[in-house]
Predict the 3D structure of the following.
Amino acid sequence: MVVNFKEEKLANKVKQTVGQPSTEVAKNIVYDTRNLNLWYGDHHGLKDINLSVYENEVTAIIGPSGCGKSTYLKTLNRMVELVPSVRTSGEILYRERNILDKNYTVEELRTRVGMVFQKPNPFPKSIYDNIAYGPRIHGIKNKKILDEIVEKSLRGAAIWDEVKDRLNQNAYGLSGGQQQRICMARCLAIEPDVILMDEPTSALDPISTLKVEELVQELKKDYSIVIVTHNMQQAARISDRTAFFLNGEVVEYDQTDIIFQTPNDQRTEDYISGRFG
Amino acid sequence: MVSQKEQKTSSVQQLIANSRNHKTKKIVEKAMPTLLFSAAVLSILTTFGIVFTLIFETFEFFKRVSITDFLFGTEWLPFSGKEQLFGIWALIAGTLKVTLIATIVAVPFGIGSAIFLSEYANEKTRRIVKPVLEVLAGVPTIVYGFFALTFVTPLLQELVPSLKLFNALSPGIVVGVMILPMITSLSEDAMSSVPNSMREGALALGATKFEVAIKVVLPAALSGIISSVVLAVSRAIGETMIVSLAGGATPKFNFNVTDSIQTMTAYIVQVSSGDAGYGTTIYYSIYSVGFTLFIFTLAMNLLAQYISKRFREVY
């Protein structure tokens, strides 16, 4: 349950000595969650969450339905506030500032922290306008710059070649997998610091899923990614660290290898071996 | 165990077989399409009947009055002793003035309140405001007419001293108030049916609530909103009681809104309520005016259809 940073660093070092030269410095913390509690009305949705998200890593959050994994993700960009009866306590430090502080403007946060949703949700506009939407609302009007952003983002989401000849067509004409990559490109267009992904492949077929997973690996170089997934193999494949949530608590949070090979907690082992969930 | 189960199923099957239900079903299934078809035919025939009467009587009118005088004339003097004049533009001007004022009043307020209700209001406010709007839509137009003549006109006369007792401004504003709930209600429906996932998509990019409303929800609901406006405008064109009471009975072709006017509908009311005998030119003139009105509303409806197709953002 309690993350032991020393051990983790040690484990890192051991790996490095085996694999590559140990030039890697200690990774920067992007999100530092401290004693986070959250209630939906009377329901205690998140209980004493303590969790750190590191720069340029993929952090996976797994757990059975209703365990609070999506809720936690949505707290990271405060989308959870769209539910009227939500209350929170504790702190989430994003780049050392508490985002749960009332003075933290939520638009500023969401400009730095992008999100990809469970179901592809492009706007009913052209592909171009979908990608340009974010830059436009943040005041970028220059057509040439927008063109560049659109191309760069679509390339970044590995969908440029598929759509470059039909940028003016409605995004809803694309397949589900393509739509999801459009949504990722839309998110990349404002060059966020962090990308939150809420089960981004659960509505996609296996091939599209694979493409999105490859993309996540690619994006990790420039972005920090937090991904919620109910697919444990996916977490094992693409993440560096995994948190296992159960009934609103973090049962275990560690490097993905450790979680999937030698978990400390019996409940984690039961879950990953498919005994429940 | 097995036989018991079999017996049970077979007994239900027996009950079904014995029931007389399927006989009545058969009859209903046979009779229903015919019944429903005749209902459809009846309503279509009625429409055709009305249009046919309109065309037939309008034709009769044009035997007496030259069609070019009608289409290009700007003076409407059917009751003058020496020479009757039937220039439709004098009536069209009255109708257009009222419609335009009504639109200017109703569109910004209607869409504004729709945005408020759909994007900002909480469930409680919506539950109170929507029924109130529906009550507003249910007020008989004669009451609105009275309200225009006895309340709005005197009030406006305080502000605009040159305003006549009968004018275009006051009924225009009141017609605007009358069509407002229609625009609000239909536009709100269109905006509420925009999926929440789209709002979330925009919010997650750092958009403010207003940016979401204007740049995501409004465009996505645009076809519904435009249809609501066009529908409301065609109601304003066809509105009768308010303009009869508060607009006056002097058709004039000008752009003055403080002066007395007459709309197409008000003219029909004036003649139908007993000023002209059957078979006279004046009698036939109401059909020609009615036909013109029909063309106007038909054009509006076609426009609504075209626009809602053209601007539909498919999601």
DSSP finds eleven helices and ten strands in chain A. The first strand of chain A starts at residue 29 and ends at 40. Confidence is low (pLDDT under 50) at residues 1-24 of chain A.
